[in-house]
Amino acid sequence: MNFQSDKPIYLQIIDIVMEKILTKEWNSGDKILSVREFAASVEVNPNTVMRSYDKLQQDEIIFNKRGLGLFVSENAIQIILKEKKVNFIQVEVPKFFQTAKLLNISIDELIELYKSN
Amino acid sequence: MNFQSDKPIYLQIIDIVMEKILTKEWNSGDKILSVREFAASVEVNPNTVMRSYDKLQQDEIIFNKRGLGLFVSENAIQIILKEKKVNFIQVEVPKFFQTAKLLNISIDELIELYKSN
Amino acid sequence: MNFQSDKPIYLQIIDIVMEKILTKEWNSGDKILSVREFAASVEVNPNTVMRSYDKLQQDEIIFNKRGLGLFVSENAIQIILKEKKVNFIQVEVPKFFQTAKLLNISIDELIELYKSN
Amino acid sequence: MNFQSDKPIYLQIIDIVMEKILTKEWNSGDKILSVREFAASVEVNPNTVMRSYDKLQQDEIIFNKRGLGLFVSENAIQIILKEKKVNFIQVEVPKFFQTAKLLNISIDELIELYKSN
DNA sequence: GTGGTCTAGACCACC
DNA sequence: GTGGTCTAGACCACA
Fold first, then answer.
1. pLDDT tens digit sequence for B37-55
2. Could you tell me if residue B114 is left (phi over 0), alpha (psi between -120 and 50 degrees) or otherwise beta?
3. From the CA of B75, how many Å to the C1' of E15?
């Protein structure tokens, strides 16, 4: 697994988990990969995965059944969307297009960049 | 001076200087605030300002006249814009589309948001 | 460790690192000495070593694996040679010929000196 | 007058004076430009020229006739050559060609660089 | 453990 | 006065 160096790995792992939930690869009630399994699969220190899972539990996106493992919460998707989408659309999107405008980058160019991504 | 805590102060100082140049508060050939003056004015350690000025010199946005001080380069504005553009395309754009993907927002929806802006 | 006094220590440290890479004492992918280790080994303040490592990272000769340390880049050797070549041609060569001119030494005499070398 | 920023201006002024003497633009016994005249002609602070003249007097390349001005010494040329030439030929020249060799730059390429200088 | 940021204070050459 | 280098020591997030 390749991680960008400018973003903490544990946050990148959170993004991976969220994506798996949003794309329904992992559904509500499903048991997710154990810390050790996940750590092995992405070649990262288990402590780092532990930290990601901690954060996800705090946000109630996953929860712990003692002795059984970690599971996707009932309303995981709603929590994720609520947490991210509002901020994205109301804050990041306008800022993004504004910067593009400042730098004289047209919408067509942005679409090109999107495709080559 | 208030600095946000999530971004290193020395980078925020670079932003301040770039802003002053882009808004023509400081023009090509102008002497900029000395390390000590700037440090005092924003209540920061001179070493921190030095670090910012060092980076700005490396990027040839300012230059040193020995013993006299630091001055705004001839092409400062072009360099700044080019630099911002590179960062935007290589860093911000991918991050933006990645988040959009994570949130299941299609390119068409983004274009809609762009138009209603 | 003995440093010459006429050249900043942090630049001399950069030279040491480059030398270790060019002589393959440190190879691509190898972890290099940590800031603190290097600082202790050459009896210098960690900040000074940090400054050297910072420059080496900017030039992409070494890179950071977060929390693990700094490692030699894939293309480190090529980058170093290219960098040295640019400096030689743009800085040393003009300075050399300028001094020769000052001392009234002709190009033919220099060629003679080259041959007898 | 354009000065390179990497070499102290007062040393660059010394080089100018030496060149004028070596090229016999200024001969033994000639009165040289006063500090103020020279400073004005190269657009530099008189203190800086003063420093250069001080150094040249220490090296006995020029000397002071009280109230009359500064004059080129009898054996100025010999002093300059002795001071510079030996070191150049015995130290700098070998080092220069050695670096060129390390960087795979041929004598022909160096000659090209000389011509385009 | 790792790198990275920041402060405080000293010293230097240069103009 | 100017920028630049260096030390000492603190604190932080990250793995």
1. 999 999 999 999 999 999 9
2. alpha
3. 26
